Amino acid sequence: MSSTPSFNAEEHQKMLRSYFNGNGFSRWASIYGNDKLSTVRSTVRQGHAVMMDQAFAWLESLNLPKGATILDAGCGTGLFSIRLAKNGYRVKSVDIASQMVEKSRQEAEKNGVAHMIDFEVNTIEEVQGHYDAVVCFDVLIHYPAEGFVHAFENLASLTKSPIIFTYAPYNRILAFQHWLGGYFPKKERRTTIQMIRDNQMDEAMHKSGMSIKKRQKISFGFYHTMLMQAERG
Ligand SMILES: C[S@@+](CC[C@H](N)C(=O)[O-])C[C@H]1O[C@@H](n2cnc3c(N)ncnc32)[C@H](O)[C@@H]1O
């Protein structure tokens, strides 16, 4: 595959941890919260909500028993974890940024579901355990192919059931715009979105013993993502 020779996993994690405990925390906590937003960010909030509704519908269609345990890898402020807990699932909520985990915990307490959720500051590459399903939304978009494959292998090893996740498929026009300096207006810019080519996705599936069963493009204003469901075999 065309790997990223300069990719340094440790440095990459350090950069993400620092961003999501700093500017990234304020930025995403306001997008995922109720603050008044600019038009650009407001489309991101709405697009994210559309993605979460679709992902939740896919998860429910698995007919897992209530009390099944779901890993929310890169849980952010806990939006999906709390939704899962409110619907009777047990949840393991993991995030690289302690500020995100703390915010998740506070939100879960406010919503009366903290007892259904086990919180942990950890990474998608290192988290352990066994879960009935894994979800990972808008996290892998921050990983170039080499890191993506490695992180996906770990997530796949934690479940016999599906992984529902999002990623950014390679797109020639967006790649050009990124090269020009980012497709977000300057003041709205966030961490770089890493695009994954089809052959790199195939490699991630092959290495993890999974294959793609469902895919749905979600596009809403400035929010673009590909929602995927991968299953073993
Ligand atoms: C854009 S937010 C998405 C949050 C949440 N999944 C959602 O969709 O509401 C990305 C999150 O991934 C977390 N993250 C980034 N890299 C991570 C890693 N290697 N392991 C765990 N979490 C990570 C960030 O701290 C941040 O909370």
Automatic annotation (TrEMBL):
<dbReference type="InterPro" id="IPR010940">
    <property type="entry name" value="Mg_prot_MeTrfase_C"/>
</dbReference>
<feature type="domain" description="Magnesium-protoporphyrin IX methyltransferase C-terminal">
    <location>
        <begin position="136"/>
        <end position="232"/>
    </location>
</feature>
<dbReference type="GO" id="GO:0046406">
    <property type="term" value="F:magnesium protoporphyrin IX methyltransferase activity"/>
</dbReference>
<dbReference type="Pfam" id="PF01209">
    <property type="entry name" value="Ubie_methyltran"/>
</dbReference>
<keyword id="KW-0949">S-adenosyl-L-methionine</keyword>
<protein>
    <recommendedName>
        <fullName>Magnesium protoporphyrin IX methyltransferase</fullName>
        <ecNumber>2.1.1.11</ecNumber>
    </recommendedName>
</protein>
<dbReference type="GO" id="GO:0032259">
    <property type="term" value="P:methylation"/>
</dbReference>
<dbReference type="GO" id="GO:0015995">
    <property type="term" value="P:chlorophyll biosynthetic process"/>
</dbReference>
<dbReference type="Pfam" id="PF07109">
    <property type="entry name" value="Mg-por_mtran_C"/>
</dbReference>
<keyword id="KW-0489">Methyltransferase</keyword>
<dbReference type="InterPro" id="IPR029063">
    <property type="entry name" value="SAM-dependent_MTases_sf"/>
</dbReference>
<keyword id="KW-0808">Transferase</keyword>
<dbReference type="InterPro" id="IPR010251">
    <property type="entry name" value="Mg_prot_MeTrfase"/>
</dbReference>
